[in-house]
C-alpha cells in the first residue's frame, strides 16, 4: 500500500510541475505524460510490464497492481479504436509514466456489447508506469519468448528472496506473538474455543478474511468486510460460512495444518508462507511466492457419521471371449 501512495504522490508532483496539464487525444481521451525517459515507444506485439492504478473520475480506486504486489504483463495489442488505453500506451516507452483518461461514451460506442461501468463520471482514469519493454522487432518467436522467460525468472527470484522479509515485517508491524511450526506456518490463537480440536476428516464451518502482507483484503466470506472495499465486494456472493473437510487436501496446506490446532469458537491468525499456499505458480490474484494472512473463526465442527454406509465400489464386469460366428 505504501508503494501505491508513493507512486501516486510522484504522479501528483509531476502533474503539478507540468504547466500544460492534460492534452487532448483521439476519441475524447485526455493524457498527461508525467515522466518521459525513453527515446523509443511501445509497438504492437511488444512485451510490456507495467504498474498501474485505475480509478473513477470521482477518485474511487478500482484496481492497483501495487496492492496486488506484482506488475501487470501483456503483449501490446492493436488498439480497438482511437482513444483507448493501448493507443495511449503506444505513446510511452520503458521508464515512462502517465495519467490517461479514457472517455466512457467513446468506449461504449466503439465496443458494441460493452456494459456501462457501474459508477458515475465521464472518464476512467489510469495512472501507469512502464516498468519493462521487450521489443518484438525482428526477433524470432523463440528468441523473443526466451527474453520474456528470463524477465519473469528475474521477477520470480526477487519475489522469492523478499518473502521472508514480508512475513517478518507483517508479524512485527502487527505485534503478533506467533508460534512457528516445523513446516514454516506462523499462527496465533487470538480467542480460544472449547471442546476438542478439529481432526482429519471433520468438516470445518468457518468465517475468514484473506489478506496480503500489505494488509490488502483479497477474499472474505464476511459481507461486512467485503463491503469495506468496493473492488472486492460482489453483490452476487451469498457471503456465508465456508464448509470443507479438514486434513484431506481440500484446501491449501497452511489451512489444513492450522485448522487442526483449533476447536469450536476459536479465532486465529495464520501467516502462511507461499510453500504452504500457492507456491511458485501462484493462482488468480495471488502472485508466485506470495505469503498470505488469514483471520479465521471456527463457527462449528461437523464430525463424520460413523454409522454412515460405506460407499460401494462398482463391480467391474469381466470381459468375455467373443464367440465365433457360425459359418454359413
Automatic annotation (TrEMBL):
It is an enzyme of class 5 (isomerase). The keyword Isomerase applies. Keywords: Isomerase, Rotamase. Transmembrane segments: none annotated. This is peptidylprolyl isomerase. It holds the Pfam family FKBP_C. InterPro entries: PPIase_dom_sf, PPIase_FKBP_dom. Residues 201-302 form the PPIase FKBP-type domain. Residues 307-328 are annotated as: Disordered. GO terms for molecular function: peptidyl-prolyl cis-trans isomerase activity. Belongs to the FKBP-type PPIase family. Residues 313-328 have a biased composition (Low complexity).
Amino acid at each position: 500500500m505504501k508503494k501505491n501512495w508513493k507512486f501516486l504522490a510522484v504522479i501528483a508532483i509531476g502533474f503539478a510541475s507540468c504547466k500544460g496539464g492534460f492534452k487532448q487525444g483521439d476519441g475524447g481521451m485526455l493524457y498527461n505524460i508525467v515522466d518521459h525517459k525513453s527515446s523509443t515507444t511501445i509497438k504492437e506485439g511488444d512485451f510490456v510490464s507495467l504498474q498501474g492504478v485505475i480509478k473513477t473520475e470521482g477518485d474511487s480506486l478500482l484496481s492497483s497492481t501495487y496492492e496486488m504486489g506484482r506488475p501487470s504483463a501483456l503483449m501490446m495489442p492493436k488498439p480497438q479504436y482511437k482513444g483507448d488505453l493501448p493507443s495511449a500506451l503506444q505513446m510511452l516507452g520503458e521508464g515512462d509514466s502517465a495519467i490517461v483518461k479514457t472517455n466512457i461514451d467513446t468506449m461504449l460506442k466503439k465496443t458494441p456489447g460493452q456494459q456501462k461501468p457501474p459508477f458515475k463520471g465521464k472518464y476512467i482514469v489510469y495512472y501507469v508506469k512502464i516498468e519493462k519493454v521487450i521489443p518484438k522487432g525482428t526477433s524470432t518467436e523463440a528468441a523473443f519468448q526466451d527474453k520474456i522467460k528470463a524477465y519473469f525468472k528475474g521477477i520470480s527470484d526477487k519475489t522469492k528472496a523478499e518473502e521472508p522479509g514480508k512475513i517478518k515485517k507483517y508479524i512485527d508491524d502487527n505485534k503478533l506473538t506467533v508460534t512457528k511450526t516445523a513446516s514454516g506456518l506462523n499462527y496465533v490463537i487470538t480467542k480460544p474455543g472449547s471442546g476438542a480440536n478439529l481432526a482429519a476428516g471433520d468438516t470445518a464451518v468457518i468465517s475468514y478474511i484473506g489478506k496480503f502482507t500489505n494488509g490488502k483484503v483479497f477474499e472474505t466470506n464476511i459481507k461486512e468486510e467485503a463491503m469495506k472495499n468496493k473492488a472486492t465486494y460482489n453483490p452476487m456472493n451469498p457471503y456465508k460460512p465456508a464448509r470443507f473437510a479438514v486434513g484431506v487436501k481440500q484446501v491449501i496446506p497452511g489451512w489444513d495444518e492450522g485448522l487442526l490446532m483449533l476447536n469450536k469458537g476459536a479465532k486465529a491468525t495464520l501467516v502462511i508462507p507461499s510453500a504452504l499456499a500457492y507456491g511458485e505458480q501462484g493462482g488468480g490474484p495471488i502472485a508466485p511466492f506470495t505469503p498470505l494472512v488469514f483471520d479465521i473463526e471456527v463457527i462449528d465442527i461437523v464430525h463424520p457419521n460413523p454409522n454412515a454406509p460405506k460407499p460401494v465400489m462398482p463391480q467391474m464386469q469381466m470381459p468375455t471371449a467373443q464367440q465365433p460366428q457360425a459359418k454359413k
